[in-house]
Design a protein that fits this description.
- The chain has no helices and 16 strands.
- By secondary structure, it is mostly beta strands.
- It folds into three domains: 62 residues, SH3 type barrels (Roll); 59 residues, Nucleic acid-binding proteins (OB fold (Dihydrolipoamide Acetyltransferase, E2P)); 57 residues, Beta Barrel (OB fold (Dihydrolipoamide Acetyltransferase, E2P)), CATH 2.40.50.140.
- The strands form three sheets. A six-stranded antiparallel sheet has the order 1-6-2-3-4-5, with no helix packed on it.
């Protein structure tokens, strides 16, 4: 068991029978009152963010999480085939662990798997994905000034809103956390 004095960003704790990652924390000592720790934490499974207060010195169950890098190979029905970059061992991952990130998966991309013992508890995609536009309305010359957006379909099947100057076959940098267009990438 750990206490609130052991908190650090990125630490995984068990709270209300769910696994949470500590995003940020602050020790507060309000004068005559008891000290407490204000914590912002993110649910590993659902991604929900929660702010909570813990008494200073309160015991918390800390979870040891191992992070390993795997290479995404291909989709196998409803599951995903990945390969360990160190041992070259292949395994399949259930689609419910992807939590919406599968629309940014491209073959041979590296992803991180978080293990609690031998159980996979979460999948972390790279923050940015470089994907090609397969279908969008053609852009017009001079459309770089306005903030107007149009839908574009990417090579993985995902649809994102992009500026009017983006054309088919352009490479785009997409934020996998939000699904937003970041910038156009040169080849």
């Amino acid at each position: 068991m750990a206490s609130t004095s052991d908190f650090r960003s990125g630490m995984v704790i068990k709270y209300n029978n769910e696994l949470w990652t500590i995003v940020e924390f602050q020790h507060v000592n309000p004068g005559n009152w008891r000290a407490f720790v204000r914590v912002k934490m993110k649910n590993i499974k659902s991604g929900k963010v929660l702010e909570n207060r813990f008494r200073a010195g309160e015991s918390i169950e800390s979870i040891r999480v191992e992070r390993k890098t795997f290479q995404y190979l291909y989709r196998d029905g409803a599951d995903y085939a990945v390969m360990d970059n160190e041992t070259y061992e292949q395994m399949t991952i259930s689609s419910d662990l992807m939590a919406g990130g599968e629309k940014y998966l491209k073959e041979n991309i590296n992803i991180d798997l978080l293990f609690n013992g031998t159980e996979i508890i979460a999948i972390e995609l790279p923050i940015f994905a470089i994907l090609r536009v397969t279908m969008t309305e053609p852009g017009l010359k001079g459309d770089t000034v306005s903030n107007t957006l149009k839908p574009a379909t990417l090579e993985t099947g995902a649809t994102v809103m992009v500026p009017l100057f983006v054309n088919e076959n352009d490479l785009l940098k997409i934020d996998t956390r939000t699904g937003y267009y970041v910038e156009r990438v040169k080849e």
